Amino acid sequence: MGVAGDRFRFRHVLPSQDREDCPLRYLLAAIALIPAAALAQPAKAPSTGPDSGVMGAQVLLDRLGFGPGVIDGRSGASYTQALKGYQEANGLKATGKLDAATQAKFDAYRGMPTVITIKLDEQILAGPFVGPIPKDEGDQAKLKTIGYSDVNEKLAERYHTTPATLAALNPEKPKLDPGSEIKVPNVIPAAREYSADLKPEWRDTLWTLNVGSDQPKAVKIVVDKSDSVLRVIGEGGKLIAQFPATMGSAKDPLPIGTWKIQGVAYNPPFHYNPKLFWDASSKDDKALLQPGPNGPVGVVWMDLNKAHYGIHGTPRPENIGKTESHGCIRLTNWDAARVAMMVKPGTPAIFQN
């Protein structure tokens, strides 16, 4: 059994609303109805599906800018680090647990539902969908776009979750057609008034990824190898956002030092040069891979003043913080897009152990 039914302690549906573009007063109208005692203790994910307490905290942390990685209702390293980041930013003891002090801070958001019901439309369901992504870069270069494999993958990324979690939230298996209703994690931002200076394609990407237009501004970025997170520091040295990250490997270690963001490439193509990858086949040729969320650097590349290094997205959000990279800093596509809106050319990026 999934999280639907009386086991799901958070409120599912917005009152009198079934559309994704519901106003903020409704988004803040219902975190819910979970008992305080349950919130005060770390929840364990049952084997049968996502844990509602963990999912509620994940959704709220995501909305507040302390990314837990994919929202799946399961405890893990990224969830623990997200709690620690939120606690640090709010002057609490960084326990990494949903303790009483953190619960008290969360009380202000009790009106926010964890899961909402949305009505699918043609824009939400739009492709192109390219089927399974080839592993070989030469084969990827043959694709006109490295788009989503199918609509399930797109919906999962749009709502910062996984296809398996969406399936658990919708055990009745509704058809994914315009007019159908499905339950999704409530990550819809309060503001989507994107600047007219942004290219239409990038505004579409931000809309698709449910990235809000009202992001805070970074004074500097700090990437910490010790806990696999990227921290966004604002005025006065205050931690204003934090996201789980994959950074480097034994072969390509994180380049420790102080760098700067030189610029941002939105929906970039990828120039594959096998000479830059120690694990590339000697038979590989250079190739140009077209843009797309499933490309090697995802939807955005933040270029650093160190050749071939950057901060970027990923086609595999579920692996963030669990695998290695070729030295770059890899975030989920939605977190990378969010960071890209916080920085500007010249923003310092400090990489430390």
TrEMBL record:
Entry annotation: catalytic residues: 312, 328
Any one GO molecular-function label of the UniProt entry: peptidoglycan L,D-transpeptidase activity
Keywords on record: Cell shape, Cell wall biogenesis/degradation, Peptidoglycan synthesis, Transferase
Record GO biological process: cell wall organization; peptidoglycan-protein cross-linking; regulation of cell shape
Entry annotated with the keyword Membrane: no
InterPro entries cross-referenced by the UniProt entry: LD-transpeptidase, LD_TPept_cat_dom, Peptidoglycan-bd-like, PGBD-like_sf, PGBDSf, Transpep_catalytic_dom
L,D-TPase catalytic domain: residues covered: 219-352
Pathway named in the protein's UniProt entry: Cell wall biogenesis; peptidoglycan biosynthesis
A GO cellular component annotation in the UniProt record: extracellular region
PROSITE patterns assigned to the protein according to its UniProt record, in alphabetical order: LD_TPASE
Domain of life: Bacteria
Family: Belongs to the YkuD family.
Protein name stated in the entry: Murein L,D-transpeptidase
Species this chain originates from: Sphingomonas montanisoli
Native organism taxonomy: Bacteria, Pseudomonadati, Pseudomonadota, Alphaproteobacteria, Sphingomonadales
